[in-house]
Each structure stands twice: as structure tokens, then as C-alpha cells.
Design goal:
This protein is of the alpha/beta class and 597 residues long. It has 21 helices and 16 strands. It is elongated, with a radius of gyration of 44 Å. The structure holds ligand C2E and magnesium ion (2 copies). Ligand C2E binds next to strand 9, helix 13, helix 14 and strand 12.
Length: 597
């Protein structure tokens, strides 16, 4: 490419120089001859360096045409008797100048042409000018030698072009080989993830519909452990080979580990896809012979079919992956992506990815909702609730979306420490209490109580100001351990409330087992108590039950003044709900929190 620019600059320079000569009136015979020749040489360099196939072919054919014109003119001059000794070097050298940058094929074609042309021209010249001094044989020998040397010099150019082309080809092969290696999975020889994605991206605009298939082998790790890695490798190779044998497979790749991906060709339409997937599954999961026995191979397949204008590549890949997970969990061999079933899974996996960084980036914030005395309506406590702010999603995820995920990822305590720290920084807890939600998994963390106490100490808040809200799940697993921790917490001064009472598997014996101070009656009863006398009776029974057990009762979900009055009449101690106040970020409304009646 550099030669190309050198040529372009040179031509511009020559044009400039000639222009200068012309303007200054110095366009002498020499300037007119030398500068255009210089420009032609540079032009040839420029064009020969050009990589574009069309430009090159125009250039090559142009050179051949100049070669032919040259000879036509010389033959004309020669046969008209205008040949001079001075012309011999010209007819030997100028054609070389025309052809030197051509490729091997053209050079080898032109070498005999040059030989014949020189032979004819020199023969004519000799018979016109040398007939007196030399015999016919001598003329013939001279003629032959000059023509052979001239033809041979073109052959020399061909040899140079040959070695140049071979070097180019070797370089090309090397680049192709390196590219191939970078795109191939070393073990199975299939494409790797990167190459697969590149191919899909290239294919995307040219196909209206696409079906992407995700394959994950079942129990591959135990198989590897049981039979050894050599066998594991054999299984992967066998699966790769089997995928390749399935009809209509257009692309196949090993994405990593025991995961493969397949793209079916355009003929495999949505209607027939299930059949293709069935064939694919049957093919992959044939037992593999190994020494004297057989190794069973299992696989879960997920596939997603979509219109390329509606779907993004990554969206379709994720969809196939999600469907594969569903197939694996349900043990159904394969599953097609179904937005009704799988969209939730996709959303959760996105939340999973984002949640950790949200905690780190301070997007997880503390909100509090007031809890008031049912008759005086004095705010006696706040409930600490977590909010995910500025999440970047269309709508900020609600705790119902991300709390279960945080629980799964073991992040609930981290969230509690962050939000509690923020809340204690802002809240004055001399008059009111603060209720925190604690799930069973949080409770059993070895340092739960110590960490909690440490935070309280830092903010000079006594455990008496804190209520731990637990749900009935606490009584389902590790009951003894949970009870022991709750007792310990109570001994330290924390109050314990049973949250959402009446929603789970409320068994009355639980109230006996768990060390409790408060009962929070679920909001669903308030909502239903308007219309259903049964709900109203349960609500009343729950309030009375709390009273009889010596527990403070709190009714959640009070959305209207009427509801608040009714609940107060039923004898509830405290109430919580949107009518009193919605949960608010502690940072947004700091002063409101100190409202004591
Ligand atoms: P919860 O502990 O029962 O909290 C009360 C939930 O009811 C809150 O929902 C609150 O906004 C909502 N609520 C309060 N008053 C009303 C009302 O009048 N009407 C209606 N329709 N809803 C009302 P939120 O904040 O979405 O929290 C949902 C659940 O998520 C909470 O239920 C709690 O179990 C859990 N949660 C929230 N933050 C945390 C946390 O930091 N840690 C843990 N472990 N769980 C949390
Ligand atoms: Mg709660
Ligand atoms: Mg609740």
C-alpha cells in the first residue's frame, strides 16, 4: 500500500513540476519528454501496487495493449524501411518496461511473442542493413541470439513474479491457517464461541428466520470424574462428530466445557424444527463404546426460533440457553423457548448479573415505611425496606423481584448491612423502633448477630430499638438452630415479629415454637375483609390470637382511613399501610421521619 501512495504522490509531484515549467515558459523538449515518462513510471508503480482485483486487471491488460501497440508501430516502421541500429536497444528494452510488473501467466505468454517479434524485426533490420557484411547464416545466428536473449529476459521476470506470487501465497496460507486456528476449538475441531458468533452476525442480515440450538451434556462432570479426562475428551469429540452428521446442520460450535451450539439451515423451518431437534438429540445421545463397555451420553437441548428483524442475536442466544436450562431442570430432553414460561427466567438471570454491581455502586437504597399505633396513629416504628434505584432497567425492580435472587446468591446480609447503615445514619430511633426483614438464610449466617450488633454500636443504637421480622419459613428448615439464634437475639434485647402471618402454611404450633413478640397480619386479609366475612373473621381471630399469646399485633396493608378505623375497632395494636405512608427512601425525606405526634 505504501508503494501505491508513493506513486500517487509522485504523479502529483510530476504534474506540479510540469505545471511549473509550463507557467514559467520552460516547457522545453526535455521537460516534455522526461516529466511525462517519469509520471508514467510512477503511474505503473501505483497501479501495480493496487490490491483491487479490477484495477489490477485493467492495469495488466493496459500493459499488454501497450506491448502490442509498441510492436505494431515498430513493425510498421521496420517494414517501411525506417529501421535503424539505434532502434535495436529500444525494441529489446521497452517491452520489458511494459511487462515487468505482470503476473507469471501473462509473462510466460508474452515471452515467445517477444521472441518472435524481435526475431522478425531484427531479421528485417539485418536484411536491410547487414546483408553486405554478413552471410545469411551469420545473420540468422545473430537474429536468433538477440531474440532468444530478449525472450529469456521476459522469462527471468516470470521467474521473479513466480517467486513473488509463491511468497504471497505462503503468506496468505499462513494468515488463513492462523485465522482458522483462532476460530477452531482445539479438541473437537468445531468452531469456537467467537467464530460462531462472528458467523451468526454475518448471516443475520441475510436470513429472515433463524433457529439457534443450545446443547448441554448431562452429568458430564461425574462422567469425567468416573472415567477420566481422556474419556471425557472422547465423548466431546464424538458428540461434535455426531452433531456434524445431523441433516440440515449449517453451523456447529463448541461454546466451552460441555456446551455446544448449532444453527440449522434455512430449509429447517419452524414447523419441522421439532423433528430436527428430535433427530439431533437421538443422534447425540447414542451410547458410546469404550473398551469393553458402553458409556451413556445424555444431553439437554434448548432452541429458539425467531425473525431476524424482530430479535437480536444475543436475545435469541439467551432464549435458547434459557430453554435448555428448562429442559435440563424438567428432564424433558429438549425444550423450545416459550416467552410465557421463559421470560421470567431471562429477567432473573439479568437481575442476577446486575445485582452485585448494584450493591457496589450504591444503587441499593434504604426506604422506610411508618408503622403507627392503631388508635392514636402515632408513628411507633418504621419498617426498613430495600429499594433498587437507578437500575437502568425500564422500571426499577421491586423487592419481590430481586430479594429472592439476592437470597439465592447469598447477598441478603450484604444488602441488610448497606441499607441498615444508611437508615441508622438518618433516623432518630429514640422514640421509634426500626423493623428489619430477615430471611432464614440470613439468620443462620455464622456472624449474623455479631455483625448486626457491630452496626448498631457504630450508630449508638441499642438492640431494643430493633425488631427482627421473620417469616414462617424460619420454622421449616433448621428450626432448632433458627430458634436458638432468635432466642439469643431476644436475650440481647431485639424484638421478634412474625411477618405476613396467614399467608404461608400457618400452623398454630409455630407460634408456640418460635420466640415471638409481634404478629404482623398479612395485608391480604384487610383487602378481602371488605367483601368476605370469612376473611374478616380470620383477621379478628388473628388479632385475638396475638392478644391471647401476649403478642403485639400489627395489621399490614391499610390503604384507607375506613380500613384503619375498622382495624382499630377490631383491637389491633398497630397498623401499617399506604394510608399512613408509603415506603420512602430515607435520603429523600429525612425530616419526615422525625414526626412524632
Ligand atoms: P413485607 O416485609 O411484608 O413488607 C411490606 C410490603 O408491603 C412492602 O412491599 C410494602 O411496600 C408493601 N406495603 C405496605 N403497605 C402497603 C399497602 O397499604 N398496600 C400495598 N398493596 N402494599 C403495601 P415491598 O417493599 O415491595 O417488599 C416486599 C417484601 O420484600 C417485603 O414484604 C419483605 O418480605 C421483602 N423485603 C423487602 N426488603 C427486604 C430486605 O431488605 N430484606 C429482606 N429479607 N426482605 C425484604
Ligand atoms: Mg416485613
Ligand atoms: Mg409483611
Amino acid at each position: 500500500m505504501h508503494a501505491y501512495w508513493v506513486g500517487v504522490l509522485g504523479v502529483c509531484f510530476a504534474a506540479f513540476l510540469y505545471g511549473l515549467y509550463y507557467i514559467t515558459g520552460k516547457d522545453t523538449w526535455l521537460a516534455r519528454a522526461v516529466i511525462p515518462s517519469y509520471a508514467i513510471i510512477l503511474g505503473i508503480i501505483t497501479l501495480s501496487a493496487h490490491r483491487n482485483f479490477h484495477v489490477k486487471s485493467i492495469f495488466f491488460n493496459g500493459c499488454m495493449a501497450m506491448f502490442a501497440l509498441f510492436w505494431l508501430k515498430n513493425f510498421g516502421d521496420g517494414f517501411m524501411g525506417h529501421s535503424r541500429a539505434f532502434d535495436i536497444p529500444v525494441i529489446l528494452l521497452v517491452p520489458l518496461f511494459f511487462v515487468m510488473t505482470l503476473d507469471v501467466k501473462r509473462l510466460l505468454m508474452l515471452a515467445p511473442v517477444q521472441f518472435i517479434c524481435v526475431f522478425i524485426y531484427v531479421g528485417a533490420f539485418a536484411s536491410q542493413n547487414l546483408a553486405v557484411e554478413f552471410s545469411q547464416r551469420e545473420q540468422f545466428a545473430f537474429n536468433l541470439v538477440v531474440a532468444a536473449l530478449s525472450g529469456f529476459s521476459i522469462c527471468l521476470f516470470a521467474a521473479v513474479a513466480f517467486s513473488r506470487e509463491r511468497a504471497d501465497q505462503n503468506l496468505f496460507n499462513l494468515v488463513a491457517e492462523t485465522e482458522q486456528l483462532a476460530a477452531t476449538d482445539g479438541l473437537t475441531g468445531l468452531m469456537n464461541r467467537r467464530a460462531f458468533m462472528d458467523k451468526l452476525r454475518a448471516l443475520w442480515p441475510n436470513r429472515s428466520e433463524i433457529c439457534i440450538v443450545f446443547i448441554d451434556l448431562n452429568h458430564f462432570k461425574p462422567l469425567n470424574d468416573q472415567y477420566g479426562h481422556a474419556v471425557g475428551d472422547q465423548v466431546l469429540c464424538k458428540v461434535a462428530q455426531r452433531i456434524g452428521d445431523v441433516p440440515h446442520v449449517e453451523l456447529s460450535a463448541r461454546l466451552g466445557g460441555d456446551e455446544f451450539a448449532v444453527l440449522f439451515d434455512a430449509e429447517a423451518c419452524e414447523e419441522t424444527m421439532e423433528l430436527h431437534i428430535e433427530t439431533l438429540h437421538a443422534q447425540i445421545t447414542q451410547d458410546m463404546r469404550w473398551e469393553s463397555g458402553v458409556i451413556p451420553i445424555g444431553a439437554s437441548i434448548g432452541y429458539a426460533h425467531g425473525q431476524t428483524i424482530e430479535q437480536s442475536l444475543s436475545g435469541l442466544l439467551r432464549a435458547a440457553d434459557t430453554a435448555m436450562r428448562r429442559a435440563k431442570n424438567a428432564n424433558t430432553h429438549w425444550a423450545k423457548f416459550n416467552p410465557l414460561v421463559d421470560n421470567d427466567a431471562i429477567a432473573s438471570s439479568t437481575l442476577e448479573i446486575e445485582l452485585k454491581s448494584a450493591i457496589k455502586n450504591g444503587q441499593i437504597r434504604a426506604a422506610v415505611q411508618p408503622i403507627a399505633n392503631a388508635t392514636s396513629l402515632d408513628v411507633v416504628a418504621y419498617e426498613l425496606l430495600t429499594r433498587w434505584t437507578n437500575s437502568g432497567f425500564e422500571r426499577d425492580p421491586s423487592p419481590k423481584d430481586f430479594i429472592p435472587i439476592a437470597e439465592k446468591l447469598g447477598l441478603l446480609n450484604e444488602i441488610l448491612w448497606v441499607t441498615l447503615d444508611e437508615a441508622l445514619e438518618r433516623l432518630d430511633l429514640t422514640e421509634q423502633k426500626l423493623a428489619i426483614n430477615v430471611s432464614p438464610a440470613q439468620l443462620v449466617a455464622s456472624d449474623f448477630l455479631e455483625s448486626l450488633l457491630r452496626i448498631l454500636e457504630r450508630h449508638e443504637v441499642r438492640p431494643h430499638a430493633i425488631t427482627i421480622e421473620i417469616t414462617e419459613e424460619v420454622a421449616f428448615r433448621n428450626v432448632e438452630r433458627n430458634v436458638a439464634i432468635l432466642r439469643q437475639a431476644r436475650d440481647l434485647g431485639f424484638a421478634i415479629a412474625l411477618d405476613d402471618f396467614g399467608t404461608g402454611y400457618s400452623s398454630l404450633s409455630m407460634l408456640d415454637t418460635l420466640p415471638l413478640d409481634k404478629l404482623k397480619i398479612d395485608q391480604s386479609f384487610v383487602r378481602k375483609s371488605d367483601k368476605s366475612t370469612q376473611s374478616k373473621s380470620i383477621l379478628l381471630a388473628a388479632i385475638r390470637l396475638a392478644k391471647q399469646l401476649g403478642l403485639e399485633s400489627c395489621v399490614e396493608g391499610i390503604e384507607t382511613e375506613q380500613a384503619a378505623r375498622r382495624i382499630a375497632l377490631l383491637g389491633a395494636d398497630t397498623i401499617q399501610g399506604y394510608w399512613l405512608g408509603k415506603p420512602r427512601l430515607v435520603q429523600e425525606q429525612p425530616r419526615q421521619l422525625k414526626l412524632v405526634s
